[in-house]
Each structure stands twice: as structure tokens, then as C-alpha cells.
Amino acid sequence: MHPRNPYRIPPDFSQLAKVYPALEPCIISYSGGFSIDFKNETSQRRLTEALLHRDFGIRLNLPLNRLCPPVPNRLNYVLWLQDIIHTTEFLGNMSVLGLDIGTGASAIYPLLSCKLNPDWSFLATDVDKFSLSCAQSNIERNGLADRIQVFETTPEAPIFAPFHQDPNLKADFTMCNPPFYSSRDDVSASADSKEFEPNAVCTGADVEMITEGGESSFVRRMVDESVEIGQRCRWYTSMLGKMSSLTEVIGAIRGHGIQNYGITEFIQGFTRRWAVVWSFSDLRISDTVARIANPQLQNLMPPRNTLRQAIRVPTPDKQRLVNILSEALAAVEGARVVNAEISDDSSSSRFIIYASKNTWSRAARRKNKQGGPLADPTAVEASVPNLIASLQWIFGDKGAAGGSETFLECQWIQGKDRNLFEGFASHISRKVSEAISH
Ligand code: SAH
User: What is the rounded average pLDDT for all residues in the chain?
Assistant: First the structure.
């Protein structure tokens, strides 16, 4: 589960029922304490309502014949999106617009997201009239009608229909929990193989769960459509329920030559879900958000945007190391440190640097020697930087040999040229290592 997800620790059910009495009849006691029957639809609904009520102040009305969204899993997706949006906070983007594809009767994603993020608003689509009318009343019940707008569409229309209807529409992200299955048989086969745990299968209507070709084909359609919409949306994302779909969707992303993408994994009990993000922008997300350690999936991972170099440090004098890094950055011709956050005790420090072109490689320096003086460094700010990166020291625990483990971390934030980023990171770590050993 996401590190900020409070449901990493299972809730105290009896306490929850005190706050939300409608849950009381669903509580079962056993020798180890209290729980609920997770196979019982009513119990599941009450649990979802209770958690949303207690932890988010959300009042939800869930119709019986539609999916009951499990809160921990839905929250995981929202927290991951927060991480992605956080990546570009340095741009000073104030308000965030998200598109929820297939919002369902609960409108769970827009409601949770808006409660957690005061600056977010949503367009929420669905093809199911009944779900949309429930979604609308859930939105109104929570006083969020000014921030969440529902959008009725059809299965035949483009998935990103709102972008077609309004040619001026721009969004920060799209999200989707797609219908998983390709047919009723697929639903039964999956239930038999226990691929999806009970709460995903037992309460959905066909329209919520079944789409031609299943989730893989739905999300690949999204990838295809996104090519045309391009940078009108910054981050395209979707959840996926099957590992095989993940392989197919990443294949589609790579097939379009999109290298700016990421994968995450949501694990809740025995249930595993994945989510993908892709973008046509030159903004880069950190490896903690875009890569996972699952050994089965390494061949699908995007290239690294977070480079960590272990640096030999004889005495871990943090202040000195921060100074060395600061000086190494200041010495890069034509680059500019635009922001430096250094804590009082130097235990944490982060420098954001803008560079317009490679001035640091041997070849660049030789060229400059022949070509006269270097470009005016103050001109960098005026021109669009081709590289934005952030650098910081990571001070680890004491290593086995007694010396502490110290890493220089270089995070790619923006830019189109991977070689420029990697070259810059290795230049700085070389300069820093040289300065330390002097
Ligand atoms: N977001 C909710 C519901 C997910 S179920 C949740 O996470 O709990 C999938 C939803 O997608 C259903 O509500 C279904 O009606 C909707 N849907 C199916 N095809 C769609 C399409 N082409 N465009 C938009 N929504 C669609």
C-alpha cells in the first residue's frame, strides 16, 4: 500500500461502528477481535460508507446494483496521483483539473480527490445513465457540485470525449478504473480462478465490469486516442487489474514511441493492481513514482529518472558535503541554481538547477575554447532551459565497514534529452568526488 495510506493498518471495526452506527449490525467478533464478513455485500457497503464518513467527511449513497468501491484501494490511486502532480509543483500550477473516465455511481475518485486536495476539480464521465444520476446526487450531497462536473458519453464515442467536445479543454491528468472483463464468461472464469477478490466481482452490474476486449483493449484505446490529444493533458493514467494487460498496455505505449511513462503497483491483502502513467510532455517523474521492484515486471520498466551515485566519504561532515555540492553546481558554466533548500543542520538539502545546454563535457569545453567566450550565464534564465534537475545528498545508515553510506541523488525534472541529463549527473558526481578527496 502507498506509504501515506492510513489503511496500511486494518481499521478497528468496533471503534468504527461507534462513529458510524449503521456498521454495528455487520460486526462479527472472533477470538482475536472484531471484523466484518467481507463476502457480504451489505457489510462491504457499510464499511465503505463508514470509512468515507469517518476519515474524509464524505457521505455516500451506494445503490445495491452497482460496484461498491473499497476505500483503501481507491485511496492508493489518488495518493499516487498526488505524487505525480507534486512532481510539477515547482511550476507553480495552482489549480488542477482531472478527468475521471467511468466515474461510476459512487464518483469515488473525484470525491476522495477533492476532499484531499482543495485545488483539484474534475470532469467525471460515464456511459451509464443510472450511475451518472447516482454520481450527481453523491456529488451534491457532499457540496462539491461546483468542483465536479459529470459528463454523459456513449461506448461508441471517443473515451476522451470531453476533449473533443471542447477544443479548448486542457487537463492535468486523466484517471480510470476500466471495466475489467471482456464477457460474462470472463467474469465467471476469473471468479473461479480467484483472480479478483470478492469485492471486485460480487456487486457490479455488467456495464461496469464488461467491455469489448476487456480492460487491456479499453486502455490501449486510451493510449491510441491520447496521441491525438497530446499535450492538452499532462498525465494520462489508468488502473489495470491483470498483469497480462499491463504487458499489452506498455507495449502500446512503447509502440507509439512514448518513452515518458511509469508503472506502479497497488497491493492490498492478496489483491494486486497496477497503474500506468504516460505523458507527451517533457516533465519527468521520479523513480519512486514510476518504477516498481517486482522482478516479474522489470522488462516493462521505463528508463530511470532518478540517478543515485554512491560517493566515498571519509568523514560524514554534512555541512561540508552540502557546500561542496553547492560549489560544484555554481561552477557549471551557463547553468543556474534557481532554488536551494538547506535545513539548519544540513541533514537535508535540495538544489534545483536549470541548464540550457551542455557546457560541461570535455567536447563542449574544447569547442568553447575555440569558439570564444562562453555564453552569458544570465541569459539562461531568459532562454527555455533544456534541462531541469534537482540534486540532493542522501545520508544513509552506517555501512558495514563503519563509514556511512552516502549517495548523491540527481533527479530529472524536465527536459527532452536523456543524454544531457545523464551526462550532467555524472559530471556533477565526478566533480563532487574530486572535491571531497582534496
Ligand atoms: N470509478 C468507479 C467505477 C469503475 S467501474 C470505481 O472505481 O469504483 C467502470 C465504469 O466505467 C463503469 O461505471 C462503466 O459504466 C464505465 N464505462 C464503461 N465504458 C465507458 C466508456 N466508454 N466511457 C466512460 N465510462 C465507461
Answer: 89
pLDDT digits (tens, 9 = 90+) for 132-173: 999 999 999 999 999 999 999 999 999 999 999 999 999 999
- DSSP assignment of 206-269, as one string? HHHHB-TTHHHHHHHHHHHHHHHHGGGEEEEEEEES-HHHHHHHHHHHHHTT---EEEEEEEET
Q: Which of 380, 431, 434, 381 is nearest to 410 (CA)?
A: 431
The string of pLDDT tens digits covering residues 218-268 is 999 999 999 999 999 999 999 999 999 999 999 999 999 999 999 999 988
Ligand 1 centre to CA of 331 (Å) is 53
Alpha carbon 267 to chain centroid distance?
15
Report whether 203 contacts 66 (CB < 8 A).
yes
Which residues fall in the annotated binding site for S-adenosyl-L-methionine?
74, 102, 126, 177
What burial letters (b/e) apply to 24-35, b meaning 16+ CB within 10 Å?
A: eebbeeeeeeeb
Ligand 1 centroid–CA 308 distance in Å is 40
Give residue 391's pLDDT.
96
Nearest to 263 by CA among 244, 282, 281, 238: 238
Taking 80 as the threshold, does the pLDDT of residue 25 lie above it? Answer: yes
Dihedral Cα 400, 404, 405, 410, nearest 10 deg? 180
Q: Which amino acid is at 189?
A: A
Contact at 8 Å (CB) between 249 and 276?
yes
Protein residue closest via CA to atom 21 of ligand 1: 155
E strand or H helix at 364:
helix 362-370
Which ligand 1 atom is nearest residue 207's CA? 15
Whether ligand 1 lies within 6 angstroms of the CB of 113 is answered as no
**Tens digits of per-residue pLDDT, 63-75?**
888 889 999 999 9
The alpha carbon of 204 and the centre of ligand 1 are apart by a number of angstroms equal to 11
Which residue's CA is minimally distant from atom 26 of ligand 1? 102
Domains of the chain: 66-300 (3.40.50.150), 306-437 (3.30.530)
Q: Cell numbers for 423, please give them.
A: 551526462
- Say if ligand 1 is within 6 A of residue 159 CB: yes
